[in-house]
């Protein structure tokens, strides 16, 4: 009889499509990070595994495999996912992925990448089996890798929205000096017809933002708020950044936070506007490819504190307290120690 009951229990579990929630009934933990080179040692993965996150969001550059031929990326994916840490992480954690330039195409590439269809197929063939089932990627024509994911926590709705900032993106405008220095520095483009998301993806995003939620987590592979740094960012197409900010203001949600990667530094920005929601962006990069000797940190009127330029990952802890959702975010080093922290109730503190 006990064996029959056990079989019935396992059978019913197999049909449970609800997302896995936090182990602690009053908290849900989400890790996030970007830029994980397959050829570099990655002790930070063991640290991440020890955190036993409910979810882990990989925000792009899961491999560094720049190539004009998409199939040349396959060995990099093979090497990346042979790391033993992935198997351990997957025992406790659900993974969500998106891509950025180095796993998508070549450095800073966009819609012009000629093998983006092949690259999409290869990317999804490696990440989709490691993600929750029933996620629909991209458009009806199977273009792009944008998607959203819902988590129900204490009856509250957490909406994770992950656009694709590569597949449809228009060309960027280089600075004059970059043609002589060879650096990938860009200036804001005045071409109003250019886009980061493309028309179809914008329609999808507006539809997602119109859905009611208690917490919206917007994940962008590139930074949203900063305008001063000369690298990739939403402000390289200022009209697109402004459109996104207004869309975030108008989103049908009670609270929101922006997560981003790409920059090989970690930093926190707080964008305040009168009578509008305060926008918080937490950037985490990189997991194992720090560039501490390069001048990557730029002053910004919205930046809180200093950047952290060694290996790091981010955490988003969502708590159920007094009948409401509360969240705070940290940036942690490769040993798991807090180096930056943002708590909406306390603002920023630096450790």
From TrEMBL:
Residue span(s) of domain PhoD-like phosphatase metallophosphatase: 47-288
Domain of life: Bacteria
Gene3D superfamilies in UniProt: PhoD-like phosphatase (3.60.21.70)
PANTHER family on file: CALCINEURIN-LIKE METALLO-PHOSPHOESTERASE SUPERFAMILY PROTEIN
Protein's UniProt name: Alkaline phosphatase family protein
């Amino acid at each position: 009889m006990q064996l029959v009951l056990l079989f019935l229990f396992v059978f019913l579990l197999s049909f449970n499509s609800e997302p896995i929630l936090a182990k602690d009934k009053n908290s849900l933990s989400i890790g996030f990070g970007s830029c994980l080179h397959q050829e570099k040692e990655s002790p930070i993965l063991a640290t991440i595994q020890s955190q036993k996150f409910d979810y882990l969001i990989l925000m792009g550059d899961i491999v560094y495999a720049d190539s004009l031929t998409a199939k040349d990326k396959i060995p990099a994916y093979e090497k990346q996912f042979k790391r033993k840490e992935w198997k351990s992480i997957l025992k406790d954690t659900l993974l969500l992925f998106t891509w950025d330039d180095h796993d998508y195409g070549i450095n800073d590439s966009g819609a012009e990448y000629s093998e983006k269809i092949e690259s999409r197929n290869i990317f999804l063939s490696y990440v989709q089996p490691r993600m929750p089932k029933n996620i629909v990627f991209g458009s009806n024509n199977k273009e792009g890798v944008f998607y959203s994911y819902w988590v129900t926590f204490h009856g509250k709705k957490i909406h994770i929205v992950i656009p694709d900032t590569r597949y449809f993106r228009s060309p960027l405008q280089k600075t004059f000096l970059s043609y002589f220095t060879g650096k990938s520095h860009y200036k804001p483009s005045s071409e109003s017809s250019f886009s980061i998301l493309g028309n179809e993806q914008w329609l999808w995003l507006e539809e997602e933002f119109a859905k009611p939620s208690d917490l919206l987590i917007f994940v962008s592979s590139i930074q949203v708020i900063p305008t001063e740094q000369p690298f990739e960012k939403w402000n390289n197409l200022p009209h697109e950044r402004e459109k996104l900010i207004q869309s975030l203001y108008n989103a049908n949600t009670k609270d929101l936070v922006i997560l981003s990667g790409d920059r090989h530094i970690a930093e926190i920005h707080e964008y305040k506007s009168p009578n509008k929601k305060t926008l918080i962006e937490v950037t985490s990069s990189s997991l194992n490819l720090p560039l501490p000797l390069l001048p990557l940190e730029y002053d910004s009127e919205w930046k809180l504190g200093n950047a952290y330029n060694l290996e790091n990952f981010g955490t988003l802890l969502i708590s159920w307290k007094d009948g409401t959702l509360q969240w705070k975010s940290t940036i942690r080093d490769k040993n798991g120690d807090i180096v930056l922290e943002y708590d909406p109730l306390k603002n920023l503190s630096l450790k």
